[in-house]
Amino acid sequence: MTALALTFRRAPASLIAGAAVLLVVLVCAVAPGLIAPYDPLAFDYGALLQPPSAAHPFGTDQFGRDILSRTIAAATIDLQIAIFATVGPLVIGTIIGLLVGYYGGIADAIFGRLVDLVVTFPFLVLVIAIVAVLGPGLSNMYIAIGVVGWVFYARLMRGEVQVLRGQDYVSAAKVLGYGEARILLRHILPNAARPILVYWMTDMALAILLGSSLGYLGLGAQPPAAEWGVLIADGKNFFSQAWWITVFPGFAIVFCGIGFSLFGDGLADLMDVRR
Amino acid sequence: MSKAGLIAARLLQILPTFLLIGVVVFVLARLLPGDPVSAALGDRATDEAVNRLREQMGLDRSILEQFLLFLRSAVQGDFGQSIAFRTPVTTVIAERLPVTLALTGLATLIALALAVPLAFVAAVNANRWPDFLIRGVFQVGLSSPVFYVGLILLTVFAAWFRWFPVGGYGEGFADILWHLLLPSTTLALSFSAVIMRNLRAAILEVLNAEFVDFARAKGLSRRVVMIRHVLRNALISTVTLVGLHAGSLLGGAVITESVFAVPGVGRLMVDSIFARDYPMIQALTLILAVVVSLAFLITDLIQMALDPRVAR
């Protein structure tokens, strides 16, 4: 209990602010029905293209659907994008970075060339090209991002491990006769994990930007699924008469992105990670 | 190693990079759904015609031979016929690549014009209100998707105020500039946030360096120290950063061009996916990767010129 209170007192303001923002997004994502005032898919022909009012704080679209409810409902898919598009790369990249950084040799040389190659392709262009192979849609988008994304985690992890493997406590563990798996998992991984966790926060913010961009282009989440990028694309033809259809879902993206950034900055401060 | 030797070595490095880019694109093209022969000839082609084209395209040979054929035609700039345009892919891309390069070039200039002075102000006032304000505004910029910023600028400045055209591309320098100003500002916004953050940190670091203390101790004015010593040294890292972001800038151009209907290669890429124009997608992926690796090359060369330590 004291330890928890101590951590809380030491926590940077940005960590608490970021956590608060993400909590709001999380609640919207998990239980949109509890918060949303209307059914996000219900048409209301009596209230078409209504500007923001007390009844509809974010206004309504061309079918009379409540924009606030749709923006809340979309949190489910966008938070799913933040997690699904990053967890695979996080796990695979961490494992490969750990092995390549620890053992070095030919695998490391090949990995180095691979990194040089991947950074040459514009990330979005490569993801779009892979989506072209697989076809548009959310799960193909996750695969496309995953095929490329793990490289960045592995590169980060490899750099950390290369520093750590020369440390005295690792040599001590070797002298004690510990197996390599134990050294990797119990001694190196916990100490190399902090920069990875901080990068993961940034990456989730980037994933939402990327996912909503692909949704906007029609290559990610497919309508009528409520996703912030798709909502913005839905409203773009009405922008000059009904700005609220596009503006409010955009606020949600910015809000969520700032939440991840603040949380990541706070985490970096707390864990003393230099970026 | 001498400077000339380093430059020569760096120039030679680009060749294996090009080769690997070729491998990736070739593999990607093999994975693309659909048969290129039936795509080119349509469903009603005779078996004889299919076989003839298959032979012509080298599809009856081994995979290694096919790869060498692909490399040979890529070097000659032959990427086949576009399915959507019915002209050689290279012709279409040659028309549109300058548009994208103009867009990204202008965006880089705008991003630097925004970021450099503001990073300077933020660093000099580190952890006081101007710093917090500048970082806060740029944080919002960094968290805003490109298409969203684009739509807002488009509506406010093109549809409501009518100061700018709602899209497309002009003719002649001034007209092109007028058409590209909104799209490149859109593209510049998040880029300038990245530059600002990096340059602010670099200036803070240089401010603590001993040579700055020395310059002050020599009695140089604050202004001269700041501009000639601090800013100049901090900007070296900005050059690297701009080069390293060539890829993300081109990715951003894909979205910006779609929002503003700019006829560049980014919009062409998205259109080609919906048109299932696979030769076009293949060639675009390859050419954009080559553009990025050339940007890396130029960055390294500029850095060698700016920073004498690199050559040692």
Architecture overview:
- The complex is a heterodimer of chains A (275) and B (312).
- Chain A has 275 residues and is mainly α.
- Helix content of chain A is 74%, strand content 0%.
- Chain A is elongated, with a radius of gyration of 22 Å.
- The model of chain A has no long low-confidence stretch (mean pLDDT 88).
- Chain B is an all-alpha fold.
- Chain B contains 13 helices and no strands.
- Chain B folds into 2 domains: 3-75, no CATH class; 92-306, MetI-like fold, CATH 1.10.3720.
- The chains are: A mainly alpha (275), B mainly alpha (312).
- Chain A: Pfam families: BPD_transp_1.
The CATH architecture of the largest domain in chain B: Orthogonal Bundle
The separation of the N and C termini of chain A measures 31 Å
Radius of gyration of chain A: 22 Å
The count of DSSP E runs of length 2 or more, i.e. the number of strands of chain B, is: 0
Name its key features.
heterodimer, A: 275 residues, mainly alpha, MetI-like fold, 74% helix, B: 312 residues, Nickel ABC transporter permease (chain A)
Give the SSE map.
The complex is a heterodimer of chains A (275) and B (312).
Chain A: H1 2-10, H2 13-30, H3 32-35, H4 67-103, H5 105-120, H6 123-134, H7 138-164, H8 168-175, H9 180-217, H10 228-235, H11 244-270
Helix pairs in contact in A: 2-4, 2-11, 4-7, 4-9, 4-11, 5-7, 6-7, 7-9, 8-9, 9-10, 9-11, 10-11
Chain B: H1 3-31, H2 36-41, H3 47-56, H4 63-75, H5 89-124, H6 129-143, H7 146-160, H8 173-207, H9 210-217, H10 222-244, H11 246-260, H12 265-274, H13 278-306
Helix pairs in contact in B: 1-4, 1-13, 5-6, 5-8, 6-8, 7-8, 7-11, 8-10, 8-11, 9-10, 10-13, 11-12, 12-13
